[in-house]
Specification:
With about 220 residues, this protein is α/β, with parallel strands linked by helices. It is built from nine helices and six strands. The radius of gyration is 18 Å and the shape is elongated.
């Protein structure tokens, strides 16, 4: 009998695809004569592709026709997909498989809740697709985090009430989404950024199986 549902975000939690977004945006910005830094890239995290391109154009004071804008958006996605196409199991962040396997060994619910529209193909590339009972990604949700829609659907798909779910997130918007529906929120990353989370760990190497057991039996 499942007691708890564990919902994982993808980017920055299971794999780090942020670097590929950075490379693709940098290539695009440079192609139209705009410099693009890692600091600027930080401001695009969790922001839609359209809004991201609008920000870059504003930084460089560049105006485009609608047609050029659409062309650049699709070029960025092509470049990004080219990068993630080369992904393999080495891209999985440290100790993620250990924690996933422990949760599955305890017969708990496991779902993915991600804004990425490429979530399934990324999980396939890194050979983790079969670990998830439900995958809710950008193709199934209309509202972005901090709206909790993605986590609500994920909980429903694994047959769990929200208050019996635990969310692993690397963004403040994701933590706020989990908190909004009374899910236990676990931040992965910087404690100063993720201060609203119930617990924060630098990465999965800091999470013990005893801690996961405690969450299951709480």
């Amino acid at each position: 009998m499942k007691k708890k549902g564990f919902i994982f975000d993808l980017d920055g939690v299971i794999v780090d695809t942020a670097k590929y977004h950075f490379l693709a945006w940098k290539k695009l910005a440079n192609s139209i004569g705009i410099d693009f830094s890692e600091e600027q890239n930080e401001q695009l995290k969790g922001v839609s592709r359209k809004a991201s391109l609008e920000k870059i154009l504003a930084w460089g004071n560049v105006t485009l026709t609608e047609e050029e804008f659409a062309e650049l958006m699709s070029k960025k996605n092509e470049d990004y997909l080219g990068y993630i196409n080369e992904m393999n199991e080495e891209e999985i962040l440290p100790d993620v498989p250990k924690i996933l396997n422990f949760i599955l060994g305890k017969n708990q619910g496991v779902a993915l809740g991600s804004a990425s529209k490429n979530a399934k193909s990324i999980l396939e590339k890194v050979n983790l697709l079969n670990k998830f009972e439900a995958i809710v990604d950008g193709n199934e949700v209309s509202k972005a985090k901090p709206d909790p829609e993605v986590f609500e659907i994920a909980a429903r798909e694994i047959g769990m009430e929200p208050h019996n779910c635990i969310v692993f997130e690397d963004s403040l918007a994701g933590i706020q989404a989990a908190n909004a529906i009374d899910m236990c929120s676990i931040g992965i990353g910087d404690a100063t950024v993720l201060k609203d989370a119930d617990f924060v760990f630098k990465d999965f190497t800091e999470i013990s199986t005893d801690f996961i057991n405690q969450l299951i039996n709480d």
